C-alpha cells in the first residue's frame, strides 16, 4: 500500500528539515543565514488530503527553549527502538549532522551552545504562520490538536485555560482530544467544551457511573476532503484518573479500550470512511502497540510522551506520527486517499525556530492581550541560573533537582519527591529566572507542597510502583511519564526486573546511610493525586528558594544508579 | 503532616498488597482448586471466551469487567489475588441472545481476573485478563 517511492519522499522531507548548516555554525547570524522560513516550510504538496498535527503545547504561547532528553530507555519490544534512542545515537540513526538545526531541534547534546546560536523555539504566533502557509497550499487542510493544551503556564492557571482557548480558536482547529485539560475540573472542562467551535473527541471518554460513552465527547467525526471521506477518531489519555487526581473529574472514566476502538474503526468504515485517522494522547509506545491490535487505522497522530521524530514510524499499514511538545513542532502529513484506501503519504516535522519564522501579527496581538493583565507579575526576575535547567530524562532533570533542593530547604525535609512529568521548558546558563519561568515548570491545579512522614518501606513501594509505570515491558501498562525525581535519596534501579525487585541500595544522601524500611523519614513533595493535600504552592516554595540563592547552580546528579539497560 | 490518615491508610494498604506478593502462589492455587472443582480435572482449552477489563484499574474497589462467552452455558469468574477468589457465576439459557455479562468487582491488588466457561457440549474454556492496581500519580 505504501510504496518505496513514498518512503524516499519522506526521506527527502526529512533531509530538507536538516537544512544546510554544518558543524560549528553556532552563531545566531550563521543560524539565521543557514535557515530560512521557506526552507522550513518547503513541501511538495501531495495527494488530496493534508493533516496538520500539533500536540502537548502545555500552554506555551511564547517562544521557549526546550531540551530533548538524553536518557529515554525503551523496554521489552521497544528496547533500542525510536523514540528510545537519544543524543548522538539518535542523530546517527537519522543521518543528522552534529551542530545542525535538526541536532538542536530533535536531540540533546551541546544544548546550551546550540540554543545560543539557534535561539528559542515555538510560539503560537509562529505556529499560526506555519498553519497559514500550509492552508495556502491546501485550503481545506485538517488541523488536529492532540491535547495537553489548556495546562502549564501562569496565564493558563489564572484564566483556567481561557487564554489557550482564545488563542487556539484563532488557529481554527478541526478537532481535539484531551489529558491535562481535565485537571481544570470537570465543571470547567464541560463549560469550555460545550462552547468549542470544533469537535472534542474521545472514543475512550466514558461516563464513570454507567460505563457508557460520554455524550459531550463524541468518539469520531468525518471530514470530506479532496473527494475522500476522512474519519478522525479521538483517543484521550487512558490513565487520567490514575496519573492525575481523579477526584477532580469523578464523572469520567477512561482506559485504553482498544476493543471499543476497533468497534469505532469498523463503524466509520461501514459509514464510508476512505481513511481512518486516530488523534491520540496514548503515548508513543501505546500507539505502536495499538496499531498492531486494532486493524484498519491508517494514521495515528501521536501525543503525550512528547517525542519528536523526523519520520513516521510504520507499524503494519499504519503510520505513527509523533509531533513533540511545547509548541516546538508542527507536523504536516499529506495523504493520497483514493478508492477507499490510503495509497501513500508525505510527511514533514516542521521545527518552529522562532527567530526564523515570522510571527503572525493577528495571533501575536491576541497572545499579547491574553498576557497583558499578568505581564508585570510574570516578568519579575527572581534570580539567575548558571546551569542549564531542563526537565526531560527518565530519572532526573536539573529543574527537578532544583525543585527538590527547594523542597528540602524550604520545607525542612530529609527527602524530596517531584513528579516525573515531561512538560516544562528549559533555561540556558546566564538567563534570568522569572516568575513565569518557575510557573512554566510547576503550574497545575494541585500544586500543594506536602510535608509528611513516610517509612523506608513505603518509599520503596512508591519507587517500585512508579518504575513499573515506565518500565513495564507491556506498553499498555505504561503511563507515559518519567520516574519520580528524588532529592536527598539515592537508589539503584534494575529496569530489567519485575515490579518489587527493581529498586535497591536506597540511601539517605545526607548521611550516606542505607534507608531503613522500618524508620520514618520526613518527606516533602508536590502534585499529590490525593484529595485534601495541604501545603504551600510549589511555585512559591521554588520562588522563595531561588530568591535566597540569587544565582542558581545545579550540580550533576549521580544519585540514581541505573542497571539492566 | 499534610497527608490525611485516610490517604496514608489507602497508600498503606497498597503497600501491604505489594509486600504480600510473596503469598500470590497460595492465592492463585486457591483459584486453581476452585477451577478443578468445576471441571473435575477435565482439560481446559481456549476459544471465543473473553474477559474484558481495564489494564490498570482506575479504582481497585470497583473495577468494571465484562465476559463474552458464545456457546457457553455457564461462566465462573475468579479474582486470583483476592483472599476469596470466587467472584460470580453466570448461567446462560438456550434463548440468551448475547452470552455476555458485565459487573464490577473489587480487587485487593494487581492480579488476574480468570473466567472458566462450560460449553454446550460439556467442554471447558478459560480466559483471563491482568488488572494492575497502582498508587499512580506521576503522569506526563
Task: Write structural notes for this entry.
- The complex is a heterodimer of chains A (565) and B (140).
- By secondary structure, chain A is of the alpha/beta class.
- Chain A folds into 2 domains: 260 residues, Metallo-dependent phosphatases (Purple Acid Phosphatase, chain A, domain 2, 4-Layer Sandwich), CATH 3.60.21; 184 residues, 5'-Nucleotidase, C-terminal domain (5'-nucleotidase,  domain 2, Alpha-Beta Complex), CATH 3.90.780.
- In chain A, the strands form 6 sheets. In chain A, strands 4-3-2-1-14-15 form a 6-stranded mixed beta sheet. Chain A has a 6-stranded mixed beta sheet with strand order 7-8-10-11-13-12, with helices on one face.
- The longest helix of chain A has 16 residues.
- Chain A is globular.
- The N terminus of chain A is likely disordered.
- With 140 residues, chain B is an alpha+beta fold.
- Chain B has one domain: Immunoglobulin-like.
- Chain B contains 2 helices and 8 strands; from the N terminus they run ααββββββββ.
- Chain B has a 5-stranded mixed beta sheet with strand order 1-8-7-4-5, with helices on one face. Chain B has a 3-stranded antiparallel beta sheet with strand order 2-3-6, with no helix packed on it.
- Chain B is globular, with a radius of gyration of 17 Å.
- In chain B, 39% of the residues are buried.
- The N terminus of chain B is likely disordered.
- Classes of the chains: A alpha/beta (565), B alpha+beta (140).
- At the A-B interface, α11, β19 and α18 of A face α1 of B.
**The CATH homology group name of the largest domain in chain A:** Metallo-dependent phosphatases
Secondary structure class of chain A reads: alpha/beta
Strand order of the largest sheet of chain A: 4-3-2-1-14-15
Oligomerization state? heterodimer
Which two chains form the greatest contact, residue counts included? Answer: A-B, 58 and 31 residues
Average pLDDT level of chain B: 82
Amino acid at each position: 500500500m505504501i510504496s518505496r517511492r513514498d518512503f524516499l519522499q519522506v526521506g527527502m522531507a526529512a533531509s530538507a528539515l536538516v537544512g544546510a548548516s554544518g558543524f560549528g555554525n553556532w552563531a545566531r547570524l550563521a543560524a539565521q543565514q543557514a535557515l530560512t522560513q521557506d526552507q522550513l516550510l518547503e513541501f511538495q504538496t501531495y495527494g488530496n488530503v493534508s493533516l496538520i498535527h500539533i500536540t502537548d503545547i502545555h500552554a506555551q504561547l511564547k517562544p521557549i527553549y526546550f531540551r530533548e532528553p538524553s536518557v529515554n530507555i525503551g523496554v521489552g519490544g521497544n528496547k533500542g527502538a525510536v523514540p528510545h534512542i537519544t543524543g548522538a545515537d539518535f542523530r546517527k540513526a537519522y543521518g543528522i549532522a552534529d551542530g545542525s538545526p535538526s541536532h538542536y531541534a530533535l536531540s540533546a547534546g551541546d544544548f546550551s551552545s546550540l540554543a545560543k546560536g539557534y535561539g528559542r523555539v515555538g510560539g503560537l504566533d509562529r505556529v499560526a504562520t506555519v498553519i497559514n502557509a500550509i492552508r495556502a497550499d491546501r485550503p481545506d487542510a485538517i488541523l488536529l490538536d492532540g491535547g495537553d493544551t489548556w495546562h502549564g503556564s501562569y496565564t493558563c492557571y489564572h484564566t483556567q485555560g481561557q487564554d489557550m482557548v482564545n488563542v487556539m480558536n484563532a488557529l481554527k482547529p478541526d478537532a481535539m482530544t484531551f489529558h491535562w485539560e481535565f485537571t481544570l475540573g470537570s465543571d470547567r472542562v464541560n463549560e469550555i467544551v460545550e462552547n468549542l467551535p470544533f469537535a472534542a473527541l474521545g472514543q475512550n471518554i466514558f461516563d464513570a457511573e454507567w460505563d457508557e460513552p460520554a455524550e459531550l465527547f463524541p468518539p469520531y467525526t468525518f471530514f470530506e476532503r479532496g473527494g475522500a471521506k476522512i474519519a478522525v477518531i479521538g483517543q484521550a489519555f487512558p490513565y487520567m484518573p490514575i496519573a492525575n487526581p481523579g477526584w477532580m473529574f469523578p464523572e469520567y472514566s477512561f482506559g485504553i479500550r482498544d476493543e471499543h476502538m476497533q468497534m469505532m474503526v469498523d463503524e466509520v468504515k461501514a459509514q464510508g470512511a476512505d481513511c481512518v485517522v486516530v488523534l491520540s494522547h496514548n503515548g508513543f509506545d501505546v500507539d505502536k502497540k495499538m496499531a498492531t491490535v486494532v486493524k484498519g487505522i491508517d494514521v495515528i497522530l501521536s501525543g503525550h510522551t512528547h517525542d519528536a521524530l523526523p519520520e513516521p514510524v510504520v507499524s503494519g499499514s499504519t503510520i505513527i506520527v509523533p509531533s513533540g511538545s511545547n509548541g516546538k513542532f508542527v507536523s504536516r502529513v499529506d495523504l493520497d486517499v483514493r478508492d477507499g484506501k490510503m495509497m501513500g503519504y508525505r510527511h514533514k516535522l516542521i521545527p518552529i525556530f522562532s527567530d526564523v519564522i515570522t510571527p503572525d501579527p493577528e495571533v501575536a496581538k491576541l497572545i499579547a492581550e491574553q498576557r497583558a493583565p499578568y505581564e508585570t507579575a510574570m516578568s519579575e526576575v527572581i534570580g539567575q541560573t548558571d546551569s542549564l535547567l531542563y526537565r526531560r530524562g527518565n530519572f532526573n532533570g536539573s529543574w527537578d533537582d532544583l525543585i527538590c533542593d527547594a523542597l528540602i530547604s524550604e520545607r525542612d525535609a530529609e527527602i524530596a519527591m517531584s513528579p516525573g512529568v515531561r512538560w516544562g521548558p528549559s533555561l540556558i546558563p546566564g538567563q534570568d529566572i522569572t516568575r513565569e519561568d518557575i510557573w512554566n515548570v510547576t503550574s497545575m491545579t494541585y500544586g500543594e507542597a506536602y510535608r509528611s512522614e513516610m517509612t523506608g518501606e513505603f518509599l520503596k513501594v512508591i519507587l517500585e510502583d512508579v518504575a513499573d509505570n515506565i518500565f513495564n515491558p507491556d506498553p499498555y501498562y505504561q503511563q507515559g511519564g518519567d520516574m519520580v525525581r528524588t532529592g536527598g535519596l539515592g537508589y539503584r534501579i534494575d529496569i530489567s526486573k519485575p515490579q518489587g525487585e527493581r529498586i535497591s541500595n536506597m540511601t539517605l544522601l545526607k548521611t550516606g546511610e542505607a534507608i531503613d524500611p522500618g524508620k520514618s523519614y520526613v518527606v516533602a513533595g508536590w502534585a499529590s493525586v490525593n484529595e485534601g493535600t495541604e501545603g504551600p504552592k510549589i511555585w512559591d516554595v521554588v520562588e522563595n528558594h531561588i530568591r535566597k540563592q540569587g544565582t542558581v547552580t545545579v550540580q550533576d546528579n549521580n544519585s540514581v544508579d541505573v542497571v539492566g539497560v | 503532616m499534610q497527608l490525611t490518615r485516610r490517604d496514608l491508610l489507602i497508600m498503606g494498604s497498597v503497600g501491604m498488597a505489594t509486600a504480600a506478593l510473596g503469598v500470590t502462589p497460595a492465592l492463585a492455587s486457591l483459584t486453581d482448586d476452585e477451577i478443578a472443582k468445576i471441571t473435575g480435572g477435565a482439560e481446559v482449552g481456549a476459544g471465543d471466551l473473553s474477559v474484558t477489563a481495564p489494564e490498570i484499574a482506575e479504582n481497585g474497589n470497583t473495577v468494571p469487567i465484562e465476559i463474552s462467552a458464545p456457546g457457553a452455558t455457564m461462566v465462573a469468574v475468579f479474582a486470583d489475588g483476592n483472599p476469596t477468589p470466587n467472584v460470580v457465576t453466570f448461567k446462560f439459557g438456550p434463548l440468551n441472545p448475547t452470552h455476555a455479562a458485565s459487573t464490577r468487582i473489587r480487587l485487593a491488588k494487581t492480579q488476574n481476573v480468570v473466567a472458566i466457561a462450560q460449553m454446550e457440549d460439556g467442554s471447558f474454556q478459560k480466559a483471563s485478563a491482568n488488572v494492575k492496581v497502582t498508587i499512580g500519580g506521576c503522569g506526563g
